[in-house]
Amino acid sequence: MKPREVEVLLVDDNPADVDLTREALQAGGHAVHLLTARDGMEAMAHLRQQGSDSPVELVVLDLNLPRMDGRAVLSAIRKDETFRKTPVVIFTTSQAARDIKLSYELGANCYVSKPGNLTDFMAAIDALARFWLKFVSLPLRGPNG
Questions:
Q1: Which tens digits make up the pLDDT trace of 46-95?
Q2: Distance (Å, whole) CA 71 – CA 65
Q3: How far is the C-alpha of 118 from the C-alpha of 98, rounded, in Å?
Q4: Where do the structural domains in the chain lie, given as residue ranges?
Q5: What is the pLDDT of residues 34-45, one digit of tens each?
Q6: Nearest to 18 by CA among 1, 45, 43
Q7: CATH superfamily of 13-136
Q8: Mean pLDDT taken over the chain
Q9: Angstrom distances, CA of residue 137 to CA of 6, 19, 21, 143
Q10: Helix, strand or coil for residue 56?
């Protein structure tokens, strides 16, 4: 039986990181439908456009984004009744203690610093996917949830 595809929204303005994430998910054989947004405003527009029928079950969010940064996106998600329970993984280059602390205060479910080399980056994505998609029970979204 083929596993159900999980809808993941990746919010990252770095095209290389988006491509590497997609490659790591495919290489790991993870059942993911990856939606992408290049900035926070695009991410929120996507979520709000779908409303309660949004299929997004997990958000992977960079902090340093143009137009609307990840902190503002996380805050907006947590304040919106429709999305406040959607798990949000912070995946960013920042290792600053203040960013980590603030992300958890704003309601992040976990915080992972992007590794600086390709091998570790791919391994981090694979580990995140295995944890969030294989071991965690995600709340269903959209018309079936």
A1: 998 876 666 889 999 999 999 999 999 999 999 999 888 999 999 999 99
A2: 9
A3: 26
A4: 13-136
A5: 999 999 999 999
A6: 43
A7: Response regulator (3.40.50.2300)
A8: 91
A9: 11, 26, 22, 18
A10: coil
